[in-house]
Input
Amino acid sequence: MAEEKIEKLVLAYSGGLDTSVILRWLRDYYRCEVVAFCADVGQAEETEGLEAKALATGASKLVIADLREEFARDFVFPMMRANAIYEGYYLLGTSIARPVIAKGQVAAALAEGADAVAHGATGKGNDQVRLELAYARLAPQLKVIAPWRHPEWPFKGRADMIAYAAEKRIPVPVTAEKPYSMDRNLVHVSYEGGILEDPWREPYNDMFRMTVAPEEAPDRPEYVEVAFEAGNPVAINGERLSPARLIARANEIGGRHGVGRVDLVENRYVGMKSRGVYESPGITILMHAHRAVEQLALDRETMHLRDSLVTRYAEMVYYGYWFAPEREALQALIDAAQMNVVGTARLKLYKGGVWIAGRRSPASLYDPQIASFEEAGGYRQGDAEGFIRLAALRLRARRRD
Output
């Protein structure tokens, strides 16, 4: 019997083998009502038939929440305003999806009067941390069940779960294990595990879902224009779009040119190194465009201060501290600096590459007259002599070392 009494819990549910087995096991072990919760964050998975599957597996009901616009507007865009990149490569597509999923799951739990939430993240990964830190901030009164860490969890791997699904007649397709695991949302697709655990092995080209191979991309470059207001992308090629639709459009454009593939051995928060392969075509385009407009509109010291904090911000997102006060305080600083980031960037896409081809901004701090080598433009070159003398003072003092 279970050690703690739970009346009703809400499970983060996808309908795959893992969460289907978890659903039935939770119901049988805790002898409680289980509500299945599915968050649509742009994973492009079919939800048709998911309710029947969840009910047949043992759920009392299925709750589906369309979180795509909230995800893009309130999570992805704030992260983009910070230009957050983890360890120089990773654009945090999986990391930033977890807090919005947790928020939706907690909302469902409170609406259902549940006393617990559960997830299918393993004890080796980052997602368990991200989800549970979000639960703690949003609804600390809820119990948290993590089956993969439960002392009574009976399954060691996929074979055990397939056998259990067959025994319980759980309606999931029983197929051979993919040679890697995959997670998709509006921002990216991530791949890890299986064959990718060998960091010397190149990923298969047919693995990728959002992008063509750069060598198979069109032989002619494509130009794309992205407009920004207060640091947020608002239009592509002159067409204003909602946040989620704008990211989707950028994905389409970048995907056909093989933009946004990344192969990274990263440092997980739980302490181990892990190889991840990612494709993030749209967000790659938008980040380059954002940087281009910032080059005109952001003051030097403001930009350098923000950039000095990017590594810390990215760690907060990657580690799971989206709802922590330090991330919210840093976001306030970033957003204040972004108010004048308005304008348009023109990018050239070709064979997996992204190049800035032009930028303009009504808030531009760039003065061609001052910057020009061809005319004085109000800048007295002789003033630089005193500036250099003062800057060199401490260096001259080192002659005594």
In short: The domain at 181-298+340-360 is CATH 3.90.1260.10 (Argininosuccinate synthetase, chain A, domain 2). The CA atoms of residues 113 and 142 lie 10 Å apart.
